[in-house]
Amino acid sequence: MTSQAGHSAIIEAKNIRRVFRSVQKGEGLRGALGLLISPQYQEHEALKGISFSLEPGSFNGLIGANGAGKTTLLKILAGLIPPSSGQAHVLGYEPFKRSLDFRKNISLVMGQKAQLWWDLPALDAFDLLRAIYEIPTQKYQERLHTLSELLDVKRHLHTQIRRLSLGERMKMELIGAILHWPKVIFLDEPTIGLDVLAAHNLREFLKAFNQKEKSTIILTSHNMDDIERLCSRVLILRSGELIFDGKPDRLIKKGEGRLRIRLMQRPTLETLQQVTGLTPNLIEIDSNEGENDSNPSIHFTLKQEEFVPTLQSLMTQFQIVDMGIEEQSLESVIHRIYEEEKTQ
């Protein structure tokens, strides 16, 4: 894996490893005594030698399944935890030293974790942030007006944050994270809890903010719309390793598409493999549809010349009730990469 290194990198990671150590407890009283006398430790390597560099003003997607190491990497880059080995530099600073200038120029939003003061009205919390970051009053008022209008929360500014819905709290957290106009922004699932319109408005704002202010953004999301619409570069983590670093369109192979079908029967993945001769990573049975659905959608990732032979093979064994051809989505490609890991 080669990273896209640049001479003016604003974020650099060099062979970052992070190992977490936990105590293993045996069963019963003997296990409890063992913790005191001779504790046994178990190590988990969350990051396995990650290296990359990001240029100023870039909008980057960080993707991975749960447990892949995304949050650990963001915490290292934001200075919350140190790497076990290797080096990280953000804006020329070593993040874990947490210098004042470093903290004034970054922002981190961790999903649903609250960073604002829940007992305060949102406006009072923002006033505190204005004082902490020493934002000039006029700029503060302009920014607050722009952000509260964009996210449609002006009517909630005088409401205690704890009394807001999840979606409204998330909007307030985002406003608090961006008020000081940071040069580097780490966003972990920023559209979680937002309705479709608010998520669209947020994406449009982040895109415009990135283009106008030239802030460098790392976004983690399970929503492929976020990644496809915003990110010019994607980094994919799998089990603590960086397995892809490049433009999103490099993930989608030319000449490939997806065959979507519904069958009268409900075959197993193994049966579909036998009938089509395809590997498991090229077949996806829609898991979002109910278990009681007798004919869920099945997607096959195929080269153009494979569509007809695959259909012919399926028709010899099953009755097709619906079918269509779709373009590859980034989500389907990521799914395929994860499935490839299971077969290795």
Description:
This protein is an alpha/beta fold and 344 residues long. The protein has two domains: 11-16 and 53-250, P-loop containing nucleotide triphosphate hydrolases (Rossmann fold, 3-Layer(aba) Sandwich); 256-343, Alpha-Beta Plaits (2-Layer Sandwich). It is 35% helix and 26% strand. It has eleven helices and 13 strands. It has helices at 28-37, 70-77, 100-104, 122-133, 137-150, 166-178, 196-213, 224-230, 269-276, 307-317, 330-343; strands at residues 11-24, 40-54, 59-63, 85-90, 106-110, 184-188, 216-220, 233-238, 241-246, 256-263, 283-285, 298-303, 320-326. The protein has a six-stranded mixed sheet, sandwiched between helices. The longest helix has 18 residues, at 196-213. The chain is globular. 31% of the residues are buried.
List keywords for this structure.
Rossmann fold; single chain; globular; 2 domains; 344 residues; alpha/beta; Alpha-Beta Plaits
In short:
The protein has 344 residues and is an alpha/beta fold.
